[in-house]
Amino acid sequence: MCDKYARSLNKPYKKERSCGPLRSKPFFRLQDMNSFFSEMRHYVLKDNSQRFGFSLDDNKFFVPGSILMLCELNQSYVSAKSRSRNQVYYFNTKNKESYYKDNIPSKKTSEIFASFRQSYARRALWKWTNLRQVEEHAHEDNPKILFRSHFIKFIADKLAHA
């Protein structure tokens, strides 16, 4: 949705534009964070420092300084992958109802999926205060700093128990 909004704002209304095009940053599911980190590359900035960046089209890149995690489901729902059908389904932990992704009743979508307001209210931000936090094998015994290795291990542990 953010990508559509950015594209709609980029429609030329004058031949001479004084600003560059707007782009939305890509979304990744929590279980796809390995692909997010594998797409990051070292880039040299104007001050000759090296930072991890994310490639865009036409030789441009951006350097993320954090990851904003948003929850797509309401609090009473969890998602899982069915072993029998190999499809994603949503399970209500309160009334024990479940719905496969491809046959959710239209009246249940607002009950299952969180609105932007709800999602943003429950957000979590992982800010990269230490540049080594996102390096693949970086590890320190500082309990106040979350490193990539800890984050990936946490996700793998959660997915193994799901």
From TrEMBL:
Pull one GO CC term from this UniProt entry: cytoplasm
Q: Which GO terms describe its biological process?
A: 7-methylguanosine mRNA capping; positive regulation of intracellular mRNA localization; RISC complex assembly
Select a single GO molecular function from the record's annotations and give it: methyltransferase cap1 activity
Q: What is this protein called?
A: GL14539
Source species of the chain: Drosophila persimilis
The gene for this chain is Dper\GL14539
